[in-house]
Amino acid sequence: MTLKLFYGDVKNSDREEIQPPAKEKCGLKNKIQHLKEQQALKLQLLSWCTEASQNDPLAAVRPPTSILDNHGIKMLATLHPNNIRNTSQVVQALGETDEWDDEWSKKILTVIQTYDNKLKGGQKAAATMEKA
C-alpha cells in the first residue's frame, strides 16, 4: 500500500494531491566509454594529433594543442561512441569554431570511428571464439 500526500488542511475535501517529480530517463548523454577503451583512444588521438601537426604546413606557428589539446583528447575519449556520430557532435563537445570544424573535425571523427570499428570487430571475434 502506498501513502498519498496532499496539500492543504486534512479537513478540506478539495485538497490537492502532491505528485512526486518525474524521474529523468537515463539518456545517451550519461553514457561514457569504458575506462580501458578510453586510455587506448587517448593514445590514438594523441598519436594522430602529433602526426597531423608535423604534416601541417603551419606547424611552425601552430602547435599541436591548437588542433586538439589534452583536455579535448580526454573529453573525446570519455564520450560513448553513440554520442559521437558526426562532426557537429565533435565540435559541440569541444566548443570549437567553424574554422576549426572545417579543418579538423572530420579527420578527428575518422580517427574515433576507425578506433571504434576496430574495437567492435575485436569484440565480435572474441565472442565468436568464446562460443566455439
From TrEMBL:
Record protein name field: Uncharacterized protein
Species in which this protein is naturally found: Laccaria amethystina LaAM-08-1
